[in-house]
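Tutorial sheet, problem 5. The two components below are modelled jointly, 473 residues in total.
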Amino acid sequence: MLAKRIIPCLDVTAGRVVKGINFLELRDAGDPVEVAKRYDEQGADELTFLDITASSDNRGLLLHIIEEVAAQVFIPLTVGGGVREVEDVRRLLNAGADKVSINTTAVLNPKMVQDAAARFGSQCIVVAIDAKKVENQPFEWEVFTHGGRKATGLDAVKWAEHMVSLGAGELLITSMDRDGTKIGFNNPLNRAISNAVDVPIIASGGAGSLQHLVDGIKLGGADAVLAASIFHYGEYTIQEAKEFMQKNGIEMRL
Amino acid sequence: MRKIDIAVVDYGMGNLRSVSKALEHVAPEKSVLVTSCPDEISKAERVVFPGQGAMPDCIRELDARGLRESVLFAAHNKPFLGICIGLQMLFEHSEEGDAAGLGVFQGQVKRFAAADMHDEHGEKLKVPHMGWNQVYQVVDSENAAHALWQGIENGTRFYYVHSYYVAPADQVITTGYTRYPSEFTSAIAQNNLFAVQFHPEKSATAGLQLLHNFVNWQP
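Model answer (structure tokens):
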């Protein structure tokens, strides 16, 4: 049967992989092509690249990195960050991305998600949802944009359903209050979204131990787990993570 | 015209870079050409027929480029590898957009019934079927698997992303199957033709092995 996936996330800026805490304090974590190859060799099921500068000036650099990775690493590649128009999606797919992740633009212009899915197919359109627990709303989790700086007033669960109805083929759910904290995924949020939609969801934000990855699948109902820091600095290899998850009754590709 | 070892059929639906790069990786000495020219497809020694997106659009774009005839000729006459929608298009009809296919094989392309599908823990199974799933190889009366499975263990995982699957009228063409949660045909073979629902170009070493086998296949 279908295996659950481990997806290392490479935050890229100025041609380097970096990792921050709560979207701040960036640390260098290596050359993107080298990091991608290392993860592929360790058995990563997919790779996600997020362009965290999201300014247009080094967009060409990212395309070049994706081209280089795609020529050497034969597993699925998702690319996101600063995707604003259907044309951006086309360029990334042509560079070798298999899926493109759309975040802020999905909120500002939901029709772009619909247009991109209609043109390229839902299978390559991932909508990334950054959510935070809120107290002042009639719902539990609110969608944020612009790297977590702007509240939208949108209920994350309802928003997820809406994005799927427009053609999103997969959802990447990042818990803003947990990202980089290593205290575990926001499993209640992920479970609520996983139950509400038919498409696969990727849990992101907060993984700090192998047990967190297990919990993300079992408690959060995620189909894949995304993690950066626990892999970037060599705390665990992907292989170790997969073996641990398999021992805990989760079907993995070993 | 220079010799074309492998033509990758390009009908304008999505990214074919991964397919061509993976072929170049396993066969650096061969010429790999991504083409939408019927003549080049007719002259190529081998043809790869990939596809992504929605099947009705794929058929429409294939016809808009006048590629139907050369693809059908290749499917009947030379080493031919269909991938994903490139498998689905070989059948008579798809539930996706109620579209007619190329009709090389009798049978339907059906959608996974998301609402009724659960795993052994009672968890809902998602559609699209996305990720790494096992392929079980079908053996012949002499207990031999197809030549394209050479060097690939029975039950090896390949990468899938699809919402529709093929249901051949005659199961004799099924050479690989997968469970989600019911069994569905994930690879077919007949004479010079082999076609798979998964993406060998995205399936790490197992996928590269299958492409290597195809590039060297003498049906």
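Marking note: Chain B has a mean pLDDT of 94. Full credit if you identified this.
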